[in-house]
């Protein structure tokens, strides 16, 4: 023990000396280190905690025993789940969530049994459109230096499997949809990291080639666009050999809830979209955000945050959490599910499918407190939306106030039959986005939507893709 202490002190001295042998200002000095070390007294309690944490999962040790048994799964208002989907090892939660909201409506409208839209079909076109968005962005910024903030952001984010609701509206309204069995999942669609990384690597190479070509005298925009089309041909081939080729037409038989055939027709993906979805996804829905780090009752737009070059930038209304709850409850009472996103990894017991800010007591275990509020966590990059799911239930008390919420997840069967339950307090702290049908928004939100949106940069840390 004595030798270790001497070594630590000598190391501290060696690390904090400047070139002339003086102590560097702001560094840990030997005297300071002795004060710091007093925080750990090596008492019997300290030893017990150290031994426990050194040999166990911190979450298991931090479980609040008083809270663990209070796990009521009853919900006063609930939209019936239409079956749990599984995004497997992919970042397509945004796509699964959007399609799950829409398939619930289709199943109810046509009284079908088990039914899914093809996630693979929509993902194929999403990847091609994102590739074009990147390459066109490179063409648009070709005269800017490589260290320009926008150019740097483009090369850092050429493509990815994550996204948000604008991807659902951009892709579905342009390319339509097909039933799951018409374009089934492949290994690469369920395990997206490798093919996405390979396409991203190729796109960065193409980006450099386009920038170099743009420096050649006489190169016009038309020449660059023609070269971009060739490049997209390479991306298309990579997508086909990993995901399959999307159908232009198909024949499909709709069946009722008991599995009996009802109607057989030939469709195009767009005609199928018009018949089984029919919404104007770009205008019928509103994205609501609870971001206390920015002014409420304001309309915001994130620059370049869309899935297609001709798509719509992500635009949202920033609101207090209570306003969002009011509209969410109205939607659930009317049997309408919603696209919902949150910071799912916080205070999450995956084995029980429970999200509860009081479930883990990290402070007592570590002998300290963790006191940042939601605004401070956002400002310090400690929290942000990471996962999208389908909001479909709320439990109200006798005064109509929410006690807890339920979402339909896309991680396959598990606790609560693949659903997650969150307390209302967790909803306050870690819910970020809700996409809701316009018919449920308040008059106040309608007025906010008339504003000229405040444009935020593409690299704003609050707007990473959900996966």
UniProtKB/TrEMBL annotation:
The keyword Kinase is assigned to this record: no
UniProt GO molecular function: cysteine-type aminopeptidase activity
Highest taxon of source: Bacteria
InterPro entries: Papain-like_cys_pep_sf, Pept_cys_AS, Peptidase_C1B
Signal peptide per UniProt: 1-21
Gene3D superfamilies membership: Cysteine proteinases (3.90.70.10)
Active-site residue list: 93, 387, 409
Record CDD domains: Peptidase_C1B (cd00585)
Pfam families in the cross-refs: Peptidase_C1_2 (PF03051)
One of the protein's GO biological processes: response to toxic substance
SUPFAM superfamilies associated with the record: Cysteine proteinases (SSF54001)
Membership in a protein family: Belongs to the peptidase C1 family.
The protein, known as: Aminopeptidase
């Amino acid at each position: 023990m004595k030798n270790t202490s001497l070594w630590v002190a000598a190391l501290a001295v060696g690390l904090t000396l400047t070139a002339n042998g003086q102590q560097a200002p702001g560094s840990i000095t030997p005297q300071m280190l002795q004060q710091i070390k007093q925080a750990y007294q090596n008492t019997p309690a300290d030893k017990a905690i150290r031994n426990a944490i050194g040999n166990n999962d911190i979450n298991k040790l931090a479980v609040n025993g008083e809270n663990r048994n209070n796990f009521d799964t009853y919900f006063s208002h609930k939209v019936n789940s239409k079956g749990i989907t599984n995004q497997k090892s992919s970042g397509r939660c945004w796509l699964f969530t959007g399609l799950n909201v829409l398939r619930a409506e289709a199943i109810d409208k046509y009284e079908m049994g088990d039914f899914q839209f093809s996630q693979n079909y929509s993902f194929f076109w999403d990847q091609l459109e994102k590739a074009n968005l990147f390459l066109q962005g490179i063409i648009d910024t070709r005269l800017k230096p490589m260290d320009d903030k926008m150019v740097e952001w483009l090369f850092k984010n050429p493509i990815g499997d994550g996204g948000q609701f604008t991807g659902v509206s951009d892709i579905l309204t342009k390319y339509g949809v097909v039933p799951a069995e018409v374009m089934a999942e492949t290994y690469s669609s369920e395990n997206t990291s490798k093919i996405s990384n390979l396409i991203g690597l190729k796109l960065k190479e193409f980006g450099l080639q386009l920038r170099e070509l743009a420096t050649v005298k006489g190169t016009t925009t038309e020449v660059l666009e023609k070269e971009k089309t060739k490049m997209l041909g390479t991306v298309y081939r990579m997508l086909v050999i990993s995901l399959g080729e999307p159908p232009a037409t198909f024949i499909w038989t709709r069946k009722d809830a008991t599995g009996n055939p009802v109607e057989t027709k030939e469709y195009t993906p767009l005609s199928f979209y018009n018949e089984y979805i029919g919404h104007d996804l770009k205008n019928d829905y509103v994205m609501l955000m609870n971001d206390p780090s920015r002014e409420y009752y304001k309309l915001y737009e994130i620059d370049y945050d869309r899935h297609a070059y001709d798509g719509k930038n992500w635009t949202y209304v920033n609101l207090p959490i209570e306003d969002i709850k009011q509209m969410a409850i109205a939607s659930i009472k009317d049997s309408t599910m919603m696209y919902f996103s949150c910071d799912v990894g916080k205070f999450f017991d995956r084995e029980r499918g429970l999200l509860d800010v009081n479930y883990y007591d990290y402070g007592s275990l570590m002998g300290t407190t963790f006191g940042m509020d939601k605004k401070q966590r956002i400002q310090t990059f400690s929290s942000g939306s990471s996962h999208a799911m389908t909001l479909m239930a709320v439990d109200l008390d006798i005064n109509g106030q929410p006690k807890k919420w339920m979402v339909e997840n896309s991680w396959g069967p598990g606790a609560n039959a693949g659903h997650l339950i969150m307390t209302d307090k967790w909803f306050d702290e870690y819910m970020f986005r809700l996409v809701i049908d316009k018919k449920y928004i308040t008059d106040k939100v309608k007025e906010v939507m008339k504003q000229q949106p405040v444009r935020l940069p593409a690299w704003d840390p609050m707007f990473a893709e959900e996966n």
